[in-house]
Structures are given as structure tokens and as C-alpha cells.
Amino acid sequence: MEVILLERIERLGQMGDVVVVKDGFARNFLLPKNKALRANKENLEFFEKEKINLEAKNLKLKTEAEAVSEKITLNNYIIIRQASDTGQLYGSVNSGDIKEKLQEEGFSIEKNQVVLDKPIKEIGHHDIRVKLHPEVTSNISIYISRSQEEAESLIKGEMTNTEVVKEDEVNLEEIFDEGAVPESVTEYEASSDEDVNDEETSEEEVASSEINENLSEEEVKDKSET
Predict the structure, then answer these.
(1) Which of 58, 134, 169, 173 could be a cystine partner for 8, CB 3.0 to 4.6 Å?
(2) What is the pTM of this model?
(3) pLDDT, mean of residues 54-75
(4) Please, which residues have CB within 8 angstroms of residue 217's CB and are 6 or more apart in sequence?
(5) How far apart are alpha carbons 3 and 33 in whole angstroms?
């Protein structure tokens, strides 16, 4: 279907362009959202008459979107979620969750304005695109964390995404009874090496014993032949 664009559509064209799109895309999105008109003689004449008004309206909306963009990019947005020790969320954060967070902060954003290729499934810092206008897109910082303190550490740069999901170090003193904690890992490794050496020695002794037995049998055989 041929349509006349009434605003800029990403990867499609600018306002006033006549483009060919799939029928379903036109009927389900462009036409009902007033983003385009069917490309016929009547609508082409209408667009030419209304072009100045449409451009003025678009410029006003673009200016408003740019003002919002300056404000929305100043903040860091924290979303608290439960997660495993490895940082995997119990569930996920989607565009609807981000829309709700932005609305809580006073920004009138619709779900389809949040550009999210796939749901967020792990804690940490995530850069998210928000389309405020066909010609204005903002990048915002979303911090998914298990607590407010954890998020603040991420924001301050005191903790990386990898460190957030790192498990706490085990305190051996809390596991072993007093005096039962190995003095060092190297001692354990050394004892393991000794065991290995003992095994190797035993194998050598067995091999030597087998050789001696074979020699003894040959000596007996030689004597019997003589």
C-alpha cells in the first residue's frame, strides 16, 4: 500500500514522503495512529494544503520533547527486584515496568516509547532508549538491584555489574572448629603431591618386582636346561 507520511517514521521516511508499506502495517499502525494517509489524489491535495500546519505542529511537539529529554536524562532510575546469588532476576523487567518507573518520576511515557529489544533478566546497570518524538530519542540509565544500597554503590562506581553478583567469600573460621582450619592451601596441595609421589613410587616398586620375578624365572629355566 502507498501512504503519505504525516511525520518522520524511523527507517521509513520523513514527513510528506510517499512510501510503499505492507497492508497490515498501514491498517494496524500507520493509519489508525494518524501517522500516514492513503496515497491518493484527494489526500495528496489535503496534505499540500495542511503541510504548513502539520510542520508547525510537529515542530512544537519536537521542541516539547527536547525539553523533556533534557530532564529525563539527568536522573538515574532504580528498580528493586529479587534475584539469585548469581544476579539472575526472579522474573524480568520489561518496557511496562520502565514506563511505570518513569511515570512515578513525573514523566508521561507510554509503553511503546520504551525501546527494549528483550526483557532485562539480571541486576546491574542498563542503558535504555526512550522515544519521546519521532526525531527525539533519549538514553536513560536504569539500575536493577536487590536493594537501594546496592544500586547506590553501582551508581557511585564502587561496584561493577560483575561484583554485584559475586558471592561473598567463605569465612573458614565459621565452618571449622577452633584449631581445625588448615594453615594454608599450600599445605594441602603439598600433602596431595606427596600422596601422588607415593603412588608413583609404589608403581615403580611393582614394576621392579615384576622384572626381578621375570629374571628369576629365566635363571631357573637356564639351570634346568643345563
Answers:
(1) 134
(2) 0.64
(3) 95
(4) none
(5) 13
